[in-house]
Write a structure and sequence with these properties.
The chain has 87 residues and is α+β, with helices and mostly antiparallel strands. It is 39% helix and 20% strand. It is built from three helices and five strands, in the order H-H-E-E-E-E-E-H. Strands 1-2-3 form a three-stranded antiparallel beta sheet. The longest helix is centred in the last third of the chain and has 13 residues, at 65-77. It is globular.
Length: 87
């Protein structure tokens, strides 16, 4: 199991929302097919076929737990969790 598969599994489990590194979360979203825009400290992700826009900001080097929860909800809603993110 690769690094990003472990991260995706961790996010989907919801057991460690406050322990997700911000940079890893951003890279996972890119691997899931999202496009990234940066405006200040706002990292904005969008993807064709996904109505919501994901807007995340770092909390030091970590992700904000409520934003990890929002990412999880979008991954589950659009069934994006069955993609091989380690390729």
């Amino acid at each position: 199991m690769g690094k990003y598969t472990k991260l995706l599994t961790s996010i989907l489990s919801g057991s460690s929302d406050k322990n997700i590194a911000f940079e890893s979360l951003c890279r996972l979203l890119l691997r899931l097919g999202f496009e990234q825009r940066i405006k200040g400290d706002h990292f904005i992700f969008s993807r064709e076929g996904v109505d919501e826009i994901i807007n995340v900001q770092p909390l030091g080097k970590m992700s904000k737990p409520y934003q990890v929860k929002q990412v999880r909800q979008i991954i589950l809603k659009y069934n994006l969790g069955n993609v091989d993110v380690d390729e």
